[in-house]
Design goal:
Strand content of chain A: under 5%
CATH superfamily of the largest domain in chain B: Cupredoxins -  blue copper proteins
Number of strands of chain A: 2
Order of helices and strands of chain B: HHHEEEHEEEEEEEHHHHHH
Number of domains of chain B: 3
Number of helices of chain B: 10
CATH topology of chain A: Cytochrome C Oxidase, Chain A
Shape of chain A: globular
Structural class of chain B: alpha+beta
CATH architecture of the largest domain in chain B: Sandwich
Number of helices of chain A: 18
Largest sheet of chain A: 2 strands, antiparallel
Mean pLDDT of chain A: 94
Strand order of the largest sheet of chain A: 1-2
Distance between the termini of chain A: 33 Å
Oligomer: heterodimer
Low-confidence stretches of chain A: 1-8
Order of helices and strands of chain A: HHHHHHHHHHHHHHHEHHEH
CATH class of chain A: Mainly Alpha
Mean pLDDT of chain B: 87
Distance between the termini of chain B: 58 Å
Low-confidence stretches of chain B: 1-21
Number of strands of chain B: 10
Shape of chain B: elongated
CATH architecture of chain A: Up-down Bundle
Radius of gyration of chain A: 23 Å
Helix content of chain A: 55-70%
Largest interface: A-B, 102 and 107 residues
CATH topology of the largest domain in chain B: Immunoglobulin-like
Radius of gyration of chain B: 28 Å
CATH superfamily of chain A: Cytochrome c oxidase-like, subunit I domain
Strand order of the largest sheet of chain B: 3-2-1-5-8
């Protein structure tokens, strides 16, 4: 390869028009496709959340029938988990990992194209169930048998197919990231030189490869139970409905960390940048991430304390679950130590990252409480759980995605977003999200079960407050959309390194990163200079 | 004008009802030793979390105020400390062990149902609870009370809206009670917060839990596992009474059972069957098949003009008695008496424009069982 081709994109420059996006094998194009897809899904899933909060605004049934309410909660959960959070992180991974490891592109570009283009079809199949007789799945995103087998509408088979497709896509995405990190990394970059976003994604990929086939197994058993006369989950045929929950949560608990480990990575980039100080405890961050990933495989039944497990099982799962607090604590302490005696400024990405640490910790505390098996008797399946997982998934995972968007948007577009508007957006979102989810702790403790379309009067006030917060939080996405589009269209051109304290190979590329990231691998000197622990 | 005033009145009534409703922030302490132990654990872990939060958030907030560029802070360059890492790995482990000890004690205690003095069997159905007192020979179904059903879509929602049932579970005070919990269809969960009892009801399996209730009173709970359309509408109400009152109640129930048996041997008139049948239909059948018999397309079949409700009467009796395998249609053999089943079939064959005009007598049901 000659230097001339290395500096222009030669015959690899993008095609024009729609075909560019359909045929693209470029990690940046595919990253953008993933991110826009995830953004669309956030809006669709968010619209469902608005319907839920409108119905729960006051006691009684005003807007939607109970059956449709269950469809809303189910599809909201499925779309947010499989359509929004996971694809958004794969999008970030696509965009950033080749740039961060000094590679020109992903290792398996054609598979990359396929793993993205499966998604719109899977999402379309899932959403099309709304228009089928019997309506969309209405058995919760956890789809416990037998409600999802014997007692579910025919559209459930389409749901099963969609989940299979989503699984293909995720597994291919994970294989691609592992192959890229291990084979495309700059020859001079050792594993312990890799930035934390790359580390967390590498570990997440192994979680995906381990967990998604288990989910595929669960839905396949559902399929045969529903259509081919098997009885995996039916006691009258010798099966066991609790078996379904074991299989589901053997997928489901690693899934939780699939959605949060890359978030840890993002925050570990942003805090050092704006504290102007190297990340504290780089290697302990890597080990903590790996420990969390390992523990995530052996704690699944803490979701099942009430299914009638033997005491010994409950004790084991309680102890194992409590252990997760240790590596998670290490991460938080490292972030705080990174901030300590730094020289901090508070641009939008930093605001999102700091509020991530605060709010994710609140979700962590309620998680610790939920892990105490006897106390879980009172918390289980109440709004306390709803508050808990929204604190870790909205103000955790989603927060880091928004933080990452503001942080790397200049590198993606070569332009700077409107900082004033971004600050307004941040305060709007952070206040409204707490009005939305904090009162749900009280609702749960006071005894309100989750997934109910109507409630008794003692829950009325907090539900109304929560709904008001919800509408305000929902509206904040209008401003977010405006800020991003305004940046793409009218943003001021930036330098290659728009943030004073930013380190990382991606900042050595052109202000708007070139179509192929590194055509010649970065040198050892450059890698050391840009490393997170120097 | 009068319409507007009445609407306004309704609105004010709703708002003031909300204002006077009791609402809690925290978990109930409850009325059993288990519920109090759980509350104690909950508060202990909560305060530990508060303490950790004060320390960590305190350090963060201090740092955010002092170590900022606008305060001319110069960034230090330290980025590791094995001592600190060991410290903040070790201290959390000690705190966790301290939490795990009392948690384990409570867990072992609440799972030990061996000291029970009496047993109640609880069966979840879509969307009602069945209570059996095996030794006393009492069995009944507990549905959401009609008063609540009437105001779901509009009207004055009163204090215990959605938390009242037609037949309360009655239990004696100061008695160790074992609950055997199962389900007839999907997974339900029997939860009474004041007892500290919440246990999944799994179809085909029996779970257990226990409670020794210290105070006489009425306690309310709800199904806590998504079980389909009316998951939000299957509450639990328990009357805890003195041991003497409980004994009287048992005798009364046994007498009532004998009366029900007598009903199935007499021959009923058409109007009697239809009026009882409508009541039974609205309580047991309408949540799926609909008040007007139209069902929900693709989920629950209509009875209006259905091949069964307008076809062979034997088929009709069979499906009500035995249910339909592989669907949500449950068996009512053990839920409803002969008279109720005869009445509801008669009603279904004459209502919704079906107009079959045939009468079914309780004796026919008895024979078909």
């Amino acid at each position: 390869m000659t230097t001339a081709i290395a500096h222009t994109d030669g015959h690899h420059s993008p095609e024009k028009g729609l075909m560019r996006w359909i045929k693209t094998t470029n990690h940046k194009d595919i990253g953008s496709l993933y991110l826009w897809f995830a953004f669309t899904m956030v809006l669709i899933g968010g619209a469902m959340a608005m319907v839920i909060r409108m119905e729960l605004f006051q006691p009684g049934i005003q807007l939607i029938e109970p059956q449709f309410f269950n469809q809303m909660t189910t599809m909201h959960g499925l779309i947010m988990v499989f359509g929004a959070i996971m694809p958004a992180f794969v999008g970030l991974g696509n965009w950033l990992i080749p740039m961060m490891v000094g590679a020109p592109d992903m290792a398996l570009p054609r598979m990359n194209n396929w793993s993205f283009w499966i998604l719109p079809f899977a999402g379309g199949i899932l959403l099309s169930t709304f228009f089928m007789e019997g309506g969309a799945p209405a058995f919760g995103w956890t789809f416990y048998a037998p409600l999802s087998t014997t007692f579910a509408p025919d559209s459930t088979d389409f749901f099963i197919f969609a989940v299979h497709l989503l699984g293909f896509s995720s597994i291919m995405g994970a294989i691609n990231i592992i192959a890229t990190v291990l084979n495309m990394r700059a020859p001079e970059m050792k594993l312990m030189d890799m930035p934390l976003f790359v580390w967390t994604w590498l570990i997440t990929s192994f979680l995906l490869i381990g967990a998604m086939p288990v989910l595929a197994g669960a839905v396949t058993m559902m399929l045969t139970d529903r259509n081919f006369g098997t009885a995996f989950f039916d006691a009258t045929g010798g099966g066991d409905p609790v078996l379904f929950q074991h299989i589901f949560w053997f997928f489901g608990h690693p899934e939780v960390y699939i959605m949060i480990l890359p978030a840890f990575g993002v925050v570990s980039h942003i805090i050092p940048t704006f504290a102007r100080k190297p990340l504290f405890g780089y290697s302990s961050m890597v080990y903590a991430t790996a420990s969390i990933a390992f523990l995530s495989y052996i704690v699944w039944a803490h979701h099942m304390f009430l299914t009638g497990m033997p005491v010994a099982g409950e004790l084991y799962f309680m102890y194992a679950t409590m252990l997760i607090a240790v590596p998670t604590g290490v991460k938080v302490f490292n972030w705080v130590s990174t901030m300590w005696r730094g020289s901090m400024t508070f641009e939008a990405p930093m605001l999102w990252a700091i509020s991530f640490v605060f709010l994710f910790m609140i979700g962590g505390f309620s998680g610790l409480m939920l892990g105490i098996a006897p106390a879980d008797i009172q918390y289980h399946d109440t709004y306390f759980v709803v508050a808990h997982f929204h604190y870790v998934l909205v103000t955790g995972a989603l927060w880091s995605i928004i933080a990452a968007t503001f942080y790397w948007l200049p590198k993606w577009t070569g332009k700077m977003y409107n900082e004033t508007l971004a600050k307004v957006h941040f305060w709007w979102a952070v206040i409204s999200v707490n009005v939305l989810f904090f009162p749900q702790h009280f609702l749960g403790l006071a005894g309100m079960p989750r997934r109910i379309p109507d409630y008794s009067l003692q829950f009325a006030d907090f539900n109304m407050i929560s709904s008001i917060g919800g509408f305000a939080f929902g509206a904040s996405f209008i401003l977010f959309t405006y800020i991003v589009i305004d940046c793409i269209r009218n943003g001021k051109p930036t330098d290659a390194r728009p943030w004073e304290g930013a380190k990382g190979l991606e900042w050595t590329l052109e202000p708007k990163a070139q179509y192929h990231s590194f055509n010649t691998p970065p040198t050892r000197a450059l890698i050391e200079q840009e490393s997170q622990h120097s | 004008m009068s319409k507007l005033t009445s609407r306004l009145g309704g609105l004010i009534a709703t708002v003031s009802a909300n204002a006077f409703a009791e609402y809690g922030f925290n978990m109930t302490q409850g009325v059993t030793s288990i519920s109090r132990d759980i509350y104690g654990l909950h508060m202990m872990v909560f305060w530990i979390c508060v303490a950790i939060a004060i320390i960590v958030f305190g350090v963060m907030i201090y740092s955010l105020i002092v170590h900022r560029k606008s305060q001319d802070a110069v960034a230090a360059n330290f980025h590791e400390s094995t001592k600190a890492e060991l410290l903040w790995t070790g201290i959390p482990i000690i705190i966790l062990v301290l939490m795990a000890i009392p948690a384990s004690t409570v867990l072992i205690d609440l799972e030990d149902t061996s000291k029970a003095e009496m047993t109640i069997k609880i069966t979840g159905h879509q969307w009602k609870w069945q209570y059996d007192y095996p030794k006393e020979g009492i069995s009944f179904i507990s549905n959401l009370k009609q008063d609540s059903k009437d105001v779901i879509y509009s009207g004055n929602r009163y204090k215990n809206y959605l938390l009242e049932v037609d037949n309360n579970l009655v239990l004696p005070v100061d008695t160790s009670i074992r609950f055997l919990i199962t389900s007839n269809d999907v997974i339900h969960n029997w939860w009474v917060p004041d007892f500290g009892v919440k246990q999944d009801a799994n179809p085909g399996f029996i779970n257990d839990a226990w409670a020794k209730i210290d105070e006489i009173g009425t306690y309310r709970g709800q199904c806590a596992e998504l079980c389909g359309k009316d998951h939000g509408f299957m509450p639990i109400v328990v009357d805890v009474v003195s041991k003497a009152d409980y004994a009287k109640w048992v005798l009364k129930q046994q007498a009532a059972k004998a009366a029900t048996l007598a009903k199935s041997s007499k021959t009923w008139r058409e109007d009697e069957l239809i009026s009882l049948g409508q009541k039974v239909y609205n309580t047991n059948c309408s949540s799926c098949h609909g008040i007007t018999g139209k069902g929900i397309p693709g989920v629950f079949p209509a009875l209006k003009g259905s091949p069964i409700a307008t076809g062979d009467i034997k088929e009709h009796i069979s499906i009500v008695l035995h249910g339909k395998a592989g669907t949500a249609m449950a068996s009512y053999k053990n839920i409803l008496g002969d008279a109720d089943i005869a009445a509801v079939i008669t009603f279904e064959r004459s209502a919704f424009g079906n107009q079959m005009g045939d009468l079914i007598q309780p004796a026919q049901i008895k024979a078909a069982r």
